[in-house]
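Design request, tokens follow.
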């Protein structure tokens, strides 16, 4: 969608649908980019974002105070030094360096909580998300939507295993009554009002895809085609993917706990059936060893179920333990860039 067309549309809808905001055209946006060991791709990412920002500014859709904010999540390569160089070369670029690796969700939250703007757009650094739909996101924001979700049209670029497991995960979350957008990751626009509401959620075990849905504000979906990673390696191997999936389930659903009750009922029924089978086999045949069926089968079966149930309960108890500690979710080591100094002056 052409930026000039969007600008003309924005002028027509200005103030018509934004009863809770004071945003005007041009608006001030911030593009939040979490980074972890992204030295191979971050320069190309910055070039494309700068080009997009300049185009939107030249067409009057966003203000010249709009910015790109990189969040270095404790990278062990040259990512932070590159961010420093980019900030010195481009006034639009700012950076936040976390004191240590805190994980993608905490790094993203840090960017959302500390970056200025009428609206913030979160995007990964690997250039898989289509940046060309950002003007559409801004257009939907100006129409009165507080949240705009970037949703993949398909998973053709994924391997069969990745596609099967990812789609299966979204379906599993739906079965467990967890409200998330199908095929949506963390590519989204949040208004300042939505960000302020998100800041009220204090949990340590972060799953932003679920938390944003809890806000309940007016939202819209923008579909896009996901590209291949431009360079570098994925920061989400299978182990981290499984951990993140389990985080989402246990943070937003008590279904696993209810599953224990269901298992208990099932085990009781199966145990009664096994006892009946053992009794009838002993009574009418000579092929069974006396006492084997009634002792060994229930013992192993019940032992396995008990360990499984205790494991699930332990996961929830560990989350309670972490939440009660109320530890900070991140520590900022450094901030660079003009956007933070401008934001400080605006608050003085």
């Amino acid at each position: 969608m052409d930026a000039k067309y969007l600008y003309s549309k924005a002028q027509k809808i200005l103030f018509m649908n934004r009863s809770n905001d004071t945003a005007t055209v041009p608006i001030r946006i911030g593009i939040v980019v979490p980074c972890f060991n992204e030295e191979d791709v971050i320069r190309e990412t910055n070039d494309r974002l700068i080009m997009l920002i300049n185009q939107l500014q030249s067409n009057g859709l966003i203000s010249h105070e709009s910015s790109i904010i990189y969040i270095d999540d404790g990278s062990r390569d040259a990512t932070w030094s590159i961010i420093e160089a980019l900030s010195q070369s481009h006034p639009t670029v700012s950076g936040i360096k976390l004191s240590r690796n805190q994980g993608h969700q905490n790094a993203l939250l840090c960017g959302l909580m500390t970056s200025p703007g009428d609206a913030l757009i979160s995007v990964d650094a690997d250039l898989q998300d289509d940046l060309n739909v950002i003007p559409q996101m801004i257009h939907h924001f100006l129409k009165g939507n507080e949240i705009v979700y970037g949703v993949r049209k398909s998973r053709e670029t994924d391997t069969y295993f990745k596609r099967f497991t990812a789609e299966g995960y979204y379906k599993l979350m739906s079965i467990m009554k967890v409200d998330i957008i199908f095929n949506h990751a963390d590519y989204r626009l949040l208004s300042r009002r939505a960000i302020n509401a998100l800041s009220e959620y204090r949990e340590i075990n972060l799953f932003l895809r679920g938390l944003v849905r809890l806000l309940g504000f007016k939202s819209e979906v923008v579909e896009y085609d996901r590209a291949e990673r431009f360079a570098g390696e994925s920061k989400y191997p299978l182990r981290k993917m499984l951990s993140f999936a389990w985080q989402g389930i246990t943070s937003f659903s008590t279904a696993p706990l209810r599953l224990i009750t269901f298992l208990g009922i099932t085990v009781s029924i199966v145990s009664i059936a096994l006892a009946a089978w053992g009794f009838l086999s002993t009574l009418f045949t000579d092929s069974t060893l006396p006492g084997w069926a009634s002792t060994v089968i229930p013992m192993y079966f019940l032992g396995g179920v008990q360990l499984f149930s205790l494991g699930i309960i332990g996961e929830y108890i560990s989350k309670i333990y972490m939440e009660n500690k109320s530890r900070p979710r991140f520590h900022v080591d450094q901030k660079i860039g003009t956007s933070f100094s401008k934001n400080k002056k605006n608050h003085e």
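Comment from the thread starter after seeing the answer: thanks! The chain has twelve helices and eight strands.
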